[in-house]
């Protein structure tokens, strides 16, 4: 037991006593056990991290046992509160809590709309509507809830020229603060002015004193604002202040309580907890919600006791918070078609040496173990690897995958540092850099530290004392999607210009709150491009992708992105023009022959590897090939794009628990890769709590060439800038990658001085591009260097320059001029990059600039890019004829636009209907009504639909010999179903599940329950495949309850990843499939 001793009152912020905090005329009166909810944007949500205000509230009123919950959510506005699909299916966390007092934190995200009268009026109207809705929902037994309206805080000037200055932002924030004040005054709501006092506090000290990025409070800022709110609400200084030992102890456990509460209202894996993929866990998560809420209630009592000075145990007692449900394993319960290449025959894990023995590699190559769980038990479930500037291997490990389970210790997913200090080729040291992560799906080095996913946040971690442990932990970004913990932002990779690309799958809800305002995305797979210097985001779509897991850049900066689901690989440039919702699928770079799914990709560029491997492309595959397929990839002659073909696999294993991930060329020139090492693979194919999801195994291997020596590692730590610049001439692309990364961490002035001297003796187009990429990474391109590159004879350099100019378009004065010239470049790849760039132009002549490309030879890739650029530029051509708009353009340009205007209509009628039909939160009546209408929308072509089927459906379905038979064969679907039925099966896959692919729950007259796949059914017997690979035969006469489990393995939302016209094309293609011949498997 311990006793908290009352300490003397100390105020750490002398500034506070002289800061005005406009509020209401009298102190807020709180009743015993009042339920208080904080709602709003990240200003509210980040209080979960630091807990000052709640701790002040509890210690000011130790006798009232106030029940406080924070429901803040990044990017929330009064009129826009985006949540994951089906968020309230099980229950609504706020409805369960039923607040009596709302503390409202709105206005920050809304302020980016500007302060004109119309926007302010809309904001106030939305605020009134929000209060009315909350009042209606939470009036209980005639008692209405109360509201306190908080103004936004001021914007703190960070001094970073790449981030907002705060001048315009504060003008807008002031206007919205005043609007909230008027709303409160007119309606009698208490109002707390945080803007005025924080403006003064922020002005007193320059730089990031109170915020992490100008907009979001750090710990010091949270303390400041906590005291301001407390003193405003209760009209007096806090009786003890924030520097007593009691306050510190209360705050510690308040923050602990807040963490558990966040696992309730922001529970990870929502698609499986309450969404469309709630397949095997109908019993699981209701018990987990209950346990979390009981754990939080235990902490309520604990902090009340602490605040009141009562004796407490050393920590809360969770022994009576209830049990969670653990289902039986589904391992071995499926048919052979499912199990083949997915599950081992028996649940047995090979040793690393036994696994290596099963691996087939090209002649002269061999696989060597670097580290495993045997030597380092913390190396469990590795999912991404990277090498630091000392040449050490870092590994992210996800033993808490797929999500933390209530009742277990807090998540301890790790970033590890593995090092071979004695040169024997195996790790002999494993250091844990950080061990408090949840599902770290991506990480990269930045700013002398590392950025890493900690769902739903991105953290910045840094070691400042040299012990290889993170002692700086900052929450940099909040709001990354967590609806599916293996679809969230992963496959992190820097572009050559220092933009961090992060990939995300479908059926997710991303709500990022940044210094530039809210950035939202929902149900759209693609790539986020994050600038860690400015903390700004852009996004590009990857149509047809379920879950992109592959991204790598070639030596000229061309990005190659790949889907995890179907493993097809695509060129990024055509996809990454200005984002449009109508983007169609893109032709893949090569036929991957259905080898899937993929987990990381790489170019084989290393002097250690055989000469005939140089430049080849690989990705890691974890199901129908346990290994790494290999491809040639080259420029497609006469076009802008690329082509290639599959060749001999780099590695293929018969070990079914071997799951290779994230191949990388290491500093020694070998191919390094992790091994997830798990008998169960798949997120929805098993219960999230299947007891056989492995959380102990993990390996790291190297593929080496026995006929060539390993390279002497080239490292970056401690090297001069000139030495780092010289590394940009290294043969290995990964050496250049790590050199660029290190250079970005050096002082800009020193880098530019050294770069000016380096380029004098490195006078070739690729070296000019390296200099340009270094400048781009500092967001400061030299236009003289750009023009030198654009005048070079190497089309690859010219294309790279246009790509960089487009990336930096807001900071390059001659952006439009250079785009207009490059559209007429002699090489198609340069022209494509220019057409991509034209999609971002903002003047009426942008249409004529883009269309001038048709005066040169066109190809598939340019056609694709131009089509979507014209979609982006629609505001400039809509409502005009081609002749009116393009007075000075060529007849070819006019004809092309006229044709585009004509054909841009088909599919348009399906847009709104698809949006309704695919909306899981819409009523089923409305969804089916939309499907009825879709059945009558024309415009699709079966001839085009085959390509859509191949891209989107063939990973799981077959038509004839096209595709894979994981799901129902569709060769005769047009004979079995009419048009409406086909549309329904695609948009509502859980509505009717094909025979042999359904699951049922059966209760017999003896009270015995079984759940499983229907293997066979006769008139008298139902045969189920159940847990542990068993078959149970049930007499149908004794079945009391037979309940279908309406959850298809086909994800809802998949069709949102293709253009509306492609959906219509796909339906026409499927409608035409009527083959019932015997040769169909």
TrEMBL record:
<keyword id="KW-0349">Heme</keyword>
<protein>
    <submittedName>
        <fullName>Cytochrome c</fullName>
    </submittedName>
</protein>
<keyword id="KW-0479">Metal-binding</keyword>
<feature type="domain" description="Cytochrome c">
    <location>
        <begin position="940"/>
        <end position="1074"/>
    </location>
</feature>
<dbReference type="InterPro" id="IPR036514">
    <property type="entry name" value="SGNH_hydro_sf"/>
</dbReference>
<dbReference type="InterPro" id="IPR013830">
    <property type="entry name" value="SGNH_hydro"/>
</dbReference>
<feature type="signal peptide">
    <location>
        <begin position="1"/>
        <end position="25"/>
    </location>
</feature>
<keyword id="KW-0732">Signal</keyword>
<dbReference type="GO" id="GO:0020037">
    <property type="term" value="F:heme binding"/>
</dbReference>
<dbReference type="InterPro" id="IPR055557">
    <property type="entry name" value="DUF7133"/>
</dbReference>
<dbReference type="GO" id="GO:0009055">
    <property type="term" value="F:electron transfer activity"/>
</dbReference>
<dbReference type="InterPro" id="IPR011041">
    <property type="entry name" value="Quinoprot_gluc/sorb_DH_b-prop"/>
</dbReference>
<dbReference type="InterPro" id="IPR013427">
    <property type="entry name" value="Haem-bd_dom_put"/>
</dbReference>
<dbReference type="InterPro" id="IPR009056">
    <property type="entry name" value="Cyt_c-like_dom"/>
</dbReference>
<keyword id="KW-0408">Iron</keyword>
<dbReference type="Pfam" id="PF23500">
    <property type="entry name" value="DUF7133"/>
</dbReference>
<dbReference type="Pfam" id="PF13472">
    <property type="entry name" value="Lipase_GDSL_2"/>
</dbReference>
<dbReference type="GO" id="GO:0046872">
    <property type="term" value="F:metal ion binding"/>
</dbReference>
<dbReference type="GO" id="GO:0016788">
    <property type="term" value="F:hydrolase activity, acting on ester bonds"/>
</dbReference>
<dbReference type="InterPro" id="IPR036909">
    <property type="entry name" value="Cyt_c-like_dom_sf"/>
</dbReference>
<dbReference type="Pfam" id="PF00034">
    <property type="entry name" value="Cytochrom_C"/>
</dbReference>
């Amino acid at each position: 037991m311990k006793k908290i001793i009352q300490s003397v009152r100390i105020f750490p912020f002398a500034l506070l006593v002289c800061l005005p905090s406009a509020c209401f005329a009298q102190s807020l009166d709180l009743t015993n056990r009042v339920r208080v909810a904080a709602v709003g944007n990240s200003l509210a949500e980040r209080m979960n991290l630091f807990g000052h205000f709640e701790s002040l509230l509890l210690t000011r009123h130790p006798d009232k046992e106030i029940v406080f919950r924070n429901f803040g959510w990044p990017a929330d506005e009064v009129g826009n509160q985006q949540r994951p699909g089906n968020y309230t299916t099980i229950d609504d966390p706020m409805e369960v809590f039923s607040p009596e007092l709302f503390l409202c934190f709105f206005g920050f995200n809304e302020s980016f709309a500007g302060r004109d009268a119309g926007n302010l009026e809309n904001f106030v109207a939305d605020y009134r509507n929000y209060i009315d809705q909350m009042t209606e929902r939470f009036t209980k037994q005639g008692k209405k809830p109360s509201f306190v309206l908080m103004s936004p805080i001021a914007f703190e000037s960070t001094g970073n020229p790449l981030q907002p200055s705060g001048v315009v932002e504060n003008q807008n924030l002031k206007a919205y603060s005043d609007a909230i004040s008027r709303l409160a005054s007119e309606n009698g709501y208490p109002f707390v002015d945080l803007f005025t006092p924080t403006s003064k506090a922020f002005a007193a000290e320059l730089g990031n004193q109170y915020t992490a990025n100008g907009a979001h409070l750090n710990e010091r800022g949270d303390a400041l604002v906590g005291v301001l709110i407390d003193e405003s609400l209760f009209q007096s200084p806090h009786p003890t202040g924030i520097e007593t030992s009691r306050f510190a102890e209360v705050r510690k456990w308040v923050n602990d309580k807040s963490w558990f509460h966040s696992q309730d209202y922001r529970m990870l894996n929502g698609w499986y907890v309450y969404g469309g993929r709630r397949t095997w866990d109908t019993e699981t998560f209701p018990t987990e919600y209950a346990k979390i809420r009981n754990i939080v209630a235990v902490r309520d009592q604990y902090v009340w006791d602490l605040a009141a000075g009562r004796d407490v145990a050393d920590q809360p007692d969770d022994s009576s918070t209830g049990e969670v449900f653990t289902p039986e394993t589904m391992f071995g319960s499926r048919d052979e078609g499912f199990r083949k290449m997915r599950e081992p025959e028996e649940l047995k894990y090979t040793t690393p040496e036994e696994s290596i023995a099963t691996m087939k590699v090209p002649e002269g190559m061999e696989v060597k173990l670097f580290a495993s769980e045997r030597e380092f038990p913390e190396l469990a479930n590795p999912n991404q690897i990277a090498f630091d500037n000392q040449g050490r291997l870092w590994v992210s490990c996800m033993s808490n995958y797929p999500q933390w389970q209530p009742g277990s210790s807090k998540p301890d997913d790790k970033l590890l540092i593995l090092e071979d200090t004695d040169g024997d080729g195996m790790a002999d040291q494993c250091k844990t850099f950080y061990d408090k992560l949840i599902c770290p799906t991506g990480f990269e080095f930045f700013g002398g530290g590392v950025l890493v996913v900690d769902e739903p946040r991105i953290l910045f971690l840094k070691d400042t004392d040299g012990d290889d442990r993170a002692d700086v932990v900052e929450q940099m970004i909040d709001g990354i999607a967590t609806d599916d913990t293996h679809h969230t932002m992963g496959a992190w990779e820097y572009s050559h210009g220092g933009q961090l690309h992060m990939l995300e799958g479908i059926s997710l809800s991303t709500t990022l709150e940044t210094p530039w305002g809210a950035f939202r995305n929902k149900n759209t797979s693609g790539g986020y491009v994050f600038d860690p210097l400015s903390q700004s985001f852009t996004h590009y779509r990857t149509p047809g992708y379920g879950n992109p897991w592959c991204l790598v850049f070639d030596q000229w900066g061309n990005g190659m992105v790949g889907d995890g689901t179907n493993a097809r690989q695509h060129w990024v440039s055509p996809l990454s023009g200005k984002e449009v919702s109508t983007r169609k699928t893109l032709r893949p770079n090569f036929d991957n022959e259905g080898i899937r799914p993929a987990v990381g990709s790489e170019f084989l560029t290393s002097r250690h590897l055989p000469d005939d491997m140089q430049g080849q492309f690989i990705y890691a595959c974890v199901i129908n090939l346990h290994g790494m397929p290999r491809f040639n990839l080259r420029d497609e002659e006469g076009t802008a794009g690329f082509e290639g073909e599959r060749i001999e696999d780099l590695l293929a294993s018969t070990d079914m628990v071997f799951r290779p991930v994230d191949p990388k060329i290491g500093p020694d020139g070998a191919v390094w890769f992790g091994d997830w090492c798990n008998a169960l693979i798949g997120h929805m194919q098993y219960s999230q709590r299947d007891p056989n999801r492995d959380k102990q195994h993990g390996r790291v291997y190297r593929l080496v060439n026995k006929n060539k020596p390993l390279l002497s590692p080239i490292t970056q730590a401690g090297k001069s800038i000139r030495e780092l610049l010289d590394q940009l001439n290294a043969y290995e692309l990964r050496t250049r990658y790590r050199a660029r990364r290190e250079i970005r961490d050096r002082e800009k002035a020193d880098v530019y001085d050294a770069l000016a001297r380096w380029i004098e003796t490195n006078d070739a187009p690729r070296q000019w591009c390296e200099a340009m990429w270094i400048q781009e990474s500092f967001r400061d391109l030299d236009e003289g260097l750009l023009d030198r590159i654009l005048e070079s004879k190497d089309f690859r350099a010219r294309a790279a320059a246009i790509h960089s100019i487009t990336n930096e378009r807001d900071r390059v004065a001659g952006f439009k001029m250079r785009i207009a010239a490059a559209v007429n470049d002699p090489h198609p790849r340069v022209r494509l990059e220019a057409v991509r760039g034209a999609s971002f132009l903002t003047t009426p002549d942008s249409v004529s600039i883009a269309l001038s490309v048709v005066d040169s030879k066109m190809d598939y890739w340019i056609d694709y890019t131009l089509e979507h650029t014209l979609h982006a530029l629609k505001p400039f051509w809509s409502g005009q004829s081609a002749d009116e708009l393009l007075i000075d353009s060529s007849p070819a340009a006019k004809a092309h636009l006229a044709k585009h205007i004509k054909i841009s209509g088909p599919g348009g009628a399906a847009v709104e209907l698809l949006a309704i039909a695919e909306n899981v939160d819409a009523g089923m009546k409305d969804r089916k009504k939309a499907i009825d209408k879709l059945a009558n929308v024309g415009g699709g072509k079966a001839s085009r639909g085959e390509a859509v089927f191949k891209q989107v459906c063939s990973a799981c379905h077959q038509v004839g010999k096209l595709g894979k038979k994981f799901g129902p064969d569709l060769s005769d679907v047009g004979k079995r179903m009419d048009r409406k039925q086909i549309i329904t099966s695609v948009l509502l896959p859980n509505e009717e599940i094909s025979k042999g692919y359904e699951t049922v729950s059966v209760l017999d007259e003896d009270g015995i329950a079984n759940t499983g796949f229907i293997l066979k059914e006769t008139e008298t017997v139902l045969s189920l495949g159940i847990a542990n690979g068993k078959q149970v035969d049930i007499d149908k006469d004794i079945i009391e309850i037979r309940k279908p489990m309406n959850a298809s393995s086909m994800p809802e939302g998949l069709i949102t990843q293709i253009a509306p016209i492609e959906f219509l094309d796909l339906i026409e293609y499927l409608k035409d499939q009527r083959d019932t011949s015997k040769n169909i498997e």
